[in-house]
Amino acid sequence: MKRTKGVSALAITASLAMVVGMGGCGRSDNGATSESDAVTIIDSSKATGDLTVWAMGNEGDLLGDFVKDFEKENPEVHVKVTAIPWSSAHDKLQTAIAAGNGPDVAQMGTTWMADFSNSFSEVPSNFDTSDFSEGPLGAGQVDGKQLGVPWYVDTRVLYYRTDIAEQAGWTEAPKTWDDLKQMAQDMQKVDGVKYGFNLNPSGTDAFIGTLPFSYSAGANLTDKGQTKWTFTDNGIKKALDFTTGLYKDGIANVNADVSSGADIANFVSGDTPMELQGPAAVSQINELGGDGFESKYATAVLPSMDDSSDGATSFVGGSDLVVFKDSKNKQTAWKFIQWASQPDIQTKWYQLSSDLPASQKAWENDALASDEKLVAFGDQLKNTMAPPAVSTWAQVSSAADRILEQINKGQLSVDDGLKNLQSEADSIGMGN
To answer: What is the mean pLDDT of residues 171-194?
Structure first.
């Protein structure tokens, strides 16, 4: 199935809306909007008033100082950033929403968008989203409405040990699934290599780890209207036939250690010299490998299913920025998100946080374009898909992890496993 690599219709509509005359929303003297105001157009005035922002993890720790540039550009605004650990963020958001005392703006993990979607304001019509590719934009959409703006993104690309590949007779990355399998088998013949490819056979998010293969085979996890799950999709079957074949043929380790960092250690040692990984792996590999190790591996876009198929489609995650309906200063909230979405601001944020920019133009900056390890991520982000934005995804994903392990261990066939998953997913429902 061909995946559109351009911007969505929403992005085009948003771009056209910028030529429409600016409609005013009711504002008090301090720049705050009342709770009942619906911001459909962002006005052209400077941001003013108090703004509260919640951010999680590393982003929360770094954002407090970073927003001072926004305050300099808007002297009458004061931004208060509250840092929240990811481990407690979901509960804190639930409690705040129930009490009606949430922030104006919050960082929202893409898999949480549906959980809290009833509390978010819709992105104004003149917010230009044309600089975002379809995958990240889609991650911020719930029930056809754009509720989140991509802040930073996370996707998966292929990592492989170039030094070991060369010993095995390979001087470039595999282009198709058959190439991937053959390259992995050839690398297994090199001394010190036990398995040619790593793919987590079990554990949390094991199923998500297979999604790039399913998406590349044209699969969808739901019907178009997200009214029902579609785990018996032929694309998912093709993907799992391929991945389970890697275990059956001894190319991947069905008993692999799935604890944090184990795959990185095996990659650096040469035990398993090829895997799918996100951007954080670059620094982890370089640190563990030591001086000079970065010259021993490369990244590449994912291989296509076969020579006749479109380019591979990877999983996309990351975080959006959202504005809450209860915000008393929605105009300034959206202006803050506009500011955070600018290519130069996204580049600066990457240099501080190592978060990959959602802005496509930011990837033209030398800070990213000159890093050969990151080029593959920029290319891959043009062709990505997010998991369904439905509130029951976490439950369904957990069931998928458990059933996938049974399939990988040979306890269930791919067909029977997917039938079981379909039945469990149907029982869980879509959360409507």
So the answer is: 98
